[in-house]
Amino acid sequence: MRRIVRPTLIAVALAGLLAGCGGSSADKAPTQTAARVNDSEISVHQINDVLAAQAGRIPPDQTGVAARRVLDGLVTQELLVQRARKAKLDDDPRVLRAVEAAKRQILASAYLEQRRALEHKPDDAEVSAFYDKNPAVFRDRRIYALDEFTIEPAPGLGEALDAFVARKPAAGAIADWLSARGTPFALRSAKRPAEQLPAAMLNRLKDMPAGESQVFSNPRALVVLRLTGATPAPVSLDLARPAIEQLLLRERVARVEQQEVRALRDGAKIEFMGEFADMGRRPPGVDGAPGAAPGGAATPSLGGASEMPTGFGATPGEAGGAAGGLGAAPGGTGAGMPAAPLAPTGAMPAMPPAPGTMPPAAQPGPRP
């Protein structure tokens, strides 16, 4: 696992970069200028800001290379900026509006970042309680081997599927049944750890015997999951702790951000006018969340659904890889359908997918 690049490492790398830019360090006083582009200068602080935004994604032994790459990009950017100013684009109303929108977004994000910095990571008791509350994802975790059917929905098809899979048919029999009805579908087999399954699916699969199937639905498709086996792959509290801490902290921060925005809106005098006069104090959608910034810029994240860990490294039963997609059933009835859409219920901080598992996609919900 790659370590986070510390500011001191970045500073050391930048110092080495500057020392190598011509001449002897004994002949030149330290400078905060990394490069000159015509009459403009690029500072070490500009490089440092870009590297700081990439912290955690740069291996320590690659910091010097990354600094040089960033500087080269800043040189190109400066040349383009100079040409844009020469063309008077900095006076263009469209550009001025975009600059103002970006400035507002940066200020709003900076305020929320300041509030986030006040939150502390969860204590041991909170982490242990979360671990104990989710045994199917941790202590009793399993790797589920599944045949996954993604089926084009049709009136009455869900009920007919429920009745058919209750007979515990094999995957081939399900494919034949769908083909006989002329129903488009896609079929693949996969190994999925518990944390990659939506909670509604996991609750129905965890105690299901091999050979049985369940039908789920989402707005785009029906999904049939046929369980072919389940291998125990427990995760200890110590291994799960970092991911749980990140999840709980992120949820706490999301609540704080929502409360902060809600308090600001409640304490402000907000009046909607013209065609927007019928809007309430809060916009539709996320409670208390600001809308999208002008020009399509994303507003500060105010949190979302609770998420579960997504992969804890190799454990027994995860080696070997998932079987590739099995493709369409005889007759080509699977053509044109996407692979079965599955996703975890929520999202823990991203962890490397476990070997032998399939990456999550869109989440289906349980059939009522």
Written overview of the protein:
By secondary structure, the chain is an alpha+beta fold. Among the domains are: 7-92, no CATH class; 134-235 and 309-366, no CATH class. 37% of the residues lie in helices and 13% in strands. It contains 9 helices and 8 strands. The chain has helices spanning 7-19, 44-53, 63-86, 93-116, 124-133, 157-165, 171-180, 199-205, 237-266; strands spanning 33-37, 40-43, 142-151, 185-193, 213-217, 222-232, 325-327, 365-366. It has a 6-stranded antiparallel sheet, with helices on both faces. It has a two-stranded antiparallel sheet with strand order 1-2. Helix 1 runs antiparallel to helix 2, helix 2 packs across helix 3 and helix 5 packs across helix 9. The longest helix is centred in the C-terminal third of the chain and has 30 residues, at 237-266. Residues 1-29, 285-306 and 314-366 have low confidence and may be disordered.
Give a concise summary:
The chain is of the alpha+beta class.
